[in-house]
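Why do we care about 3D structure at all? Because function follows from shape, and shape follows, mostly, from sequence. That is the central idea of this module. The next example makes it concrete: a single protein chain, its amino acid sequence, and then its structure expressed as tokens.
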Amino acid sequence: MSDSGQQFFISLKENAFFINPKKVWTSDLGQYYESFGRIVASAITKNMVIGIYFADFFFKRIFNVKNDFEDLKDLMSDQEFENYKLLKTYTAEEIDCLYLDFTVMVKGKGVELIEGGEDKMLTVDNLDQYLSYLIEFYTYTQFKQQYDSFIKGFNNHIKTNILMEYFSYKEISIIICGKKHLDH
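And the structure:
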């Protein structure tokens, strides 16, 4: 899944894997992610641990659990994460002086977090909304097609909504991946 030639997934901090943001979407790529979904679901039905650790926020999204600000920690540099975290401590005047809008830079291009985002300025009043859209973009929006393909493959074996009736996303992660660290 992460061989050096294809790199469908990349290793984040603490060796958790997540969708590679540098892969350009094609329908062929969708078939690979669908296959990965089938493999992971098949591991559950066969009571097998795959031993590859996916980022917690990946499983949250797969099983319809809302991502939170801390999920960005694995996706950003420490400095970038801390800068966004600091926004919550700024006064209205300090935020206004930043001249931030509802866009992010991706591969050298500005991408709107919401429609009309380049015209919507960040203020203290819409900071929580801004951070919510930022979380959504970094953990889901830019990977929607990969998630959809993975979930389609997964649901061919086991319906995610049925699993969620019995297990939390963390429990499902342990069932699929095993524990990262052994308890002492």
